[in-house]
Specification:
The structure is a homohexamer of 237-residue chains.
Chain A lengths: L6 E6 L4 H10 L10 E6 L10 H17 L8 E4 L7 H7 L4 E3 H11 L4 E5 L5 H11 L5 E6 L10 H17 L5 E4 L8 H8 L3 E2 L1 H17 L13
Chain lengths: 237, 237, 237, 237, 237, 237
């Protein structure tokens, strides 16, 4: 008898449904009939975009409240936070007993697994301090070539040409001047540009949500092996 | 039109075919009709087991020679080294143009993505210095609870009861005395014990080869998205 | 003409007024007619106690909302967060233009200024990971002897004998076994035990709120020197 | 009954009385009738200026001799060394039993408490290596934007326009090119320029002696709380 | 009675005899009638030059095989690896019981003993990543000013004017732009340029093989003191 | 024509002539007719023993005065400080233009060159903090197994049996409990016990003065190669 199918919940902590839709589309490649179900949900109580430390911090309680309001989701097998600031990651780990993966952390770690220095393309420069604190906490400063912003306002993000042109320019600077050999896109909303950017820059370009889902799915597939069990080991308190 | 199927090559750098067979079995969960092909090969020129720094270092040239003797494999889309010492990882990265993942590195990074301190169960204590150098180089010393050996001789590794009893005992010590909340099995040959050990220890237990394949498959699936292309971006020199 | 009196706002981010009262009492020594006014306020929207990462993160938005509801407080000259988890510290720094001091950070830094290794007495062991992340981020791991918990439930914290006995015991362990030469009380609610604990342990014992206020008051006094100005330099974006 | 007034001794380790006078003036804001007495003394056996490692090292014995020649000062409650090289700090800590604060250390730590990267304005570039060793030893390299010198000879230091112009120029470079958001004046003799520099640079500017006295006074005020005791806890050997 | 003369074996791991000859010449100054014999051998099974990680790794087994084929050399008292990549260093340490010194490590450590930042002149930029990993593993990143390559092809290395001109240019950049105060020549084959380069650059220039031999000879001379013993303490397993 | 003989000055910074005599004896192995002259001098103005930070710091000025009183010594080619606290090392580097080696630094670096963790045997535990600061500054904390004291009073140091018994006991603890594979004797006055201790402990035992002289002599021998020159490159300011 095959084990019950396991479930991975991907939460977009901002309230913009179209972002969730794009994320879900970018995760389509990870879905398969006999693999974990990958559910993408929008934290409707979140802000339209996560742009400040206050936004980041504010997600924790909203996320926990969301799980309380959607109790059946407490039975999923793993959670991926689809936002480059990994909002609520530690708080959620203290609250639910399944693995919680931050997409920024998974992007940094996946880049590190590729062996070279990585550069980060951020939306706005005021996020860079926050990113660098997380990289330092992980112990990966020595792998960070640099983190540079495209400085595109939220309103202008829909202008694809402008956004892509800036991403390409920043990516080239990260590679040519700062020695990056892997590029991380520092925003879950950049997913649609990944393939095109990688093609132009000729180095691997990492989308954080995909990086998080790859690791999470791996854990779930592995645990599906255990006869009759889709349950990930409970985290010890 | 769907993109051509991509291929992941998993190489067991020791010459023991039964180890490769067990590895391939442990990777079965990652295979699917529309996903990357996962080929497991044995480096027949390698030693029966990789037990010393000389063994580790010696793999590099053998690995490169193997690729020269099997030129069609140079067209795979990614490589995972299925040995906890990641032998030949840097050398291979300098030689072929596709991503090369070390299973030890991927195990450390996956454990780090779970947020807690990790402990390592090694076969023999003389490998521990080598492991710790790699952890230090990655920047993850602060996440390492401890690395302890089961001290089982190669001859006795087939004695499943002895090996598992020792693994369980060392795992408990790592958790209870050293604060580990994730356990990494420090040998590709321990794959068969993962589920049972996780069940007994009640914390996530990571098999390095599975960790490496999860990340590599993720990269391949993502790149399969690009229309008509299964090719991973070439690494810049 | 003397410069206008400056104002320091000390916010207790939990909603328990009696804690604010004790904090204010412990700060009485810093008040003087010609010095900065030291106002102690309670974040009534906060939880009764800050016991989890979710609590910590949740303070950011509540704190900002509080400033919006009390606009005259945006004109204070500096803010001290009176909670050992420094909740909302970074978010508030992004929001208001005056210096924001975290009491945990100031306690760690004051201990570091005394030259020796410091130990931390925490309430519950589940806070220790959070504390250690902050110490690591500051760069002071090498000064941390150890962080140990008294494991007293909130209900039992009012039992002064129990609490003090545990604090004394943990303090002695930090000194005798871990080499601490300065002790930091890891909770703003421990203020009342400082003098007694210092007397028994015979090493300096630091109350975090007092440490934060000492540094903040220093900055305000200094800036009071400028003729006709009580205004602290605006933080550059 | 109120506790006996406590006493803070601020020692200028160079022999130039006018420097001590300026320091004392800059500390006037910390004096109050019911607060610690703040006594400023000149180490008359010191060199006119502390400009080399030999000068720094030479202070230790002179300082200890000074305390032997002035035995009543051994009963003060804390000591602040008013020189950015913190000469004699460790030696004095081994000799007397009250807290000894280095003004450079306190300046670095106060800057760190403000959350941003700090820049240091030094007199001469040959001091920078010495400064950086101390920052590294504290663990705060990651907070140091850069340390740059104004390269003004001692003879020219009295030329206020020249000195201030150079300080302003270096300060702007630290902010604009190196990302400093707090400026530390790397010499106790720069006190007179603090307010003016802060006004021009629009970021907090820290005078080291004031930073040291703020922390020391805080410790003394707190300990004054204990009924009938102005005595700081003896440091354990 | 004088102790038996001890023997130091210096192995050039590349197969180019003329390099060994130049190394031996550069070591002549360390030879003396009553000192350790310094034998220079060529690893004839090695590649003509060590230019890649594969070359580096490949030396380990060749080196061990060489010792097996030359068993009397297992009785030497210490070994120095005369190649800036320290190939086989760890593997050899696991295999023979006498001290094994890497010349790159000894060069870095000798430069560190001189107190200032050091710069490295490499042949080709692709070696720089390898060098930096070793410096990081040693803990000396903070002493590394920069590592820059002269980018001279192997064929052109014999053109002394070209090579020296490039070395001089790179050395000046390391000093003037990156703050190096000691220069390390990042290749055993650069020995002949040391004196001339030092004369032009006016800072100490370190040849790695000489640095390794200096430390190794020191250990041997010291152990020669013990009456009747030329044997270095066996390394504990 | 052979270059003029170069000269190495070894200074014992304590005033005890018998210590200098023992040091000179331990350095006899480094002397040879055609090598650098190794002169051992006593800093007669120093304290009988260097036992505190004040002693350490006080050496700087005494050392510089000594060079002024003995101007011909300013023409030596290198200096080794024969005391495990490396007193005056940085100050002297700022004062004279030849390389100045600290024996503690050279001992740490030589131990690091042997590849394993090292332990330090100190006289008194109050020196350990000072030692650890230096190890941290060098970047070698990760190589330090532990630093433990024999706690023998100066008066009792002459009791060879007591001293050696304690050294042996501490050495064994460093090896067995803390994983040291190299032992450093943390006092220049322990030289006489080196061979005996190494013989008993069966791991390399390093005498700091010998470590410093080995490196310094190496530098001098190398520079003696330059035709007609015994002069070490001047250190750039």
């Amino acid at each position: 008898m095959k084990p019950a199918q396991s479930t991975l919940l991907v939460i977009n902590p901002n309230s913009t449904q179209v972002v969730t839709d794009h994320i879900s589309l970018a995760l389509e490649v990870f879905r398969r009939p006999d693999g974990p179900a990958i559910l993408c949900e929008t934290l409707t109580s979140g802000p339209p975009g996560i742009e400040s430390q206050a936004h980041v911090d504010g997600i924790s309680e909203k996320l926990i409240a969301w799980f309380e309001a959607h109790p059946h989701y407490r039975n999923v097998d793993a959670v991926v936070l689809a936002c480059f600031s990994d909002p609520g990651m530690v708080a959620l780990r203290e609250t639910i007993s399944v693995p919680v993966f931050g997409s920024a952390e998974c992007a940094y770690l996946t880049a590190a697994a590729m062996g070279d220095k990585f550069g980060v393309i951020s939306i706005l420069s005021r996020a860079i301090g926050r990113h660098k604190r997380q990289v330092r906490l992980l112990g990966l400063e020595h792998k960070l070539a640099e983190d540079l912003a495209i400085e595109v306002n939220v309103v202008d993000l829909v202008k694809e040409d402008l956004t892509f042109t800036r991403m390409l320019s920043v990516g080239k600077t990260l590679i040519d001047r700062h020695g990056a050999r892997v590029i991380i896109m520092g925003c879950a909303g950049m997913a649609r540009y990944r393939a095109r950017l990688e093609s132009e820059l000729a180095v691997p370009v990492i989308d954080p949500t995909q990086a998080g889902v790859a690791i999470a799915v791996g854990q779930l597939l592995v645990r599906g092996m255990a006869a009759g069990s889709g349950v990930v080991a409970k985290r010890a308190a």
